[in-house]
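Re: that chain you flagged

S.,

Sorry for the slow reply, it's been a week of failed gels. I finally had a moment to sit down with the sequence you sent. For the record, here it is as I used it:
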Amino acid sequence: MSETDRNWPFADDPQTVYESIRTETERVLVGNEDAIEHLTIALLTRGHLLLEGVPGVAKTTIANLLARATGLDYQRVQMTPDIMPADITGTQIYREATGEFELQRGPVFSNLVVADEINRATPKTQSALLEAMQERTVTIEGQTLALPEPFMVVATQNPIEMEGVFELPEAQRDRFMFKLTIDLPDREEETELLRRFDDQPELGPDAISQAVQTEDIRAAREAVTDVHVAEPVTEYVLDLVAATRDHPDVSYGVSPRASLAFLRGIKARAAIRGREYATTEDVKALTEPILTHRLVLDTEAELSDVGPADVVEEIVDTVTVPDTDGLGGKPTPN
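Prediction finished late last night. Pasting the structure tokens below so you have them in one place:
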């Protein structure tokens, strides 16, 4: 079926864009609806996403499915200790035949870059992604080049590996809008997984089709920016952020980049649910994936087996949720 024959979603409707992506990816994906939702939110807000989970839970497949459903150019980089920054960004190659240097672009020049097992790469190589993720440019031997638009990095990591891995530095973690943990499927989900692959042994990302156009994504991004955030909702975000900086188990709380991630994220979450305003429930739903990977705990907390998720849970339980009754999350009439 050609693109002109397909019934594409309304270009300015983030909810329809999301539903189209979700419906198409569910032809292969069993469970993990949260992953597709958060990937879509990140895509509509120019964010990046870190997926953590044990081997075999479809982390890379999830990213590949998003690329297929959106029609985005997709490149996967297998991160290893011997991979160099130039292997990701590119380099200048001397051509003897012409006597000139020629730019060889790396895999980062794609719409969707999957850094598989990112914590296996050295910190020097990990840092090659910092400029790309923040500025959406790459500098190669003094020449700054713009990356394609849309541009998104999805990184994966295995939490149980101890040998041959390098912990992501705080600056690297902070560049990811969300961190999601991909859990093992429950029995019902795994039963459905076995049934599908029994019927279609070759089932995979190639089995799905493009569900939205790039123009739809751009228009949906613009629609997301129009979502209203009432002052009490903004205050709730600021209270949560401030609580990370004052918590006794935290050495370094989150930066304003986390506050901005909240702002963009709650707007997109509201939009894909068909709302023109964000609520405190949107904030709550995004608190863990936005805050957990950004917290730096003190030594005493780590020795006491207190984890970032424990701290975030405590913060959510103790920070007062503002009363938005009467506002409905919408602007107050003049």
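What I noticed first: The two ends are 50 Å apart (CA to CA).

Talk soon,
D.
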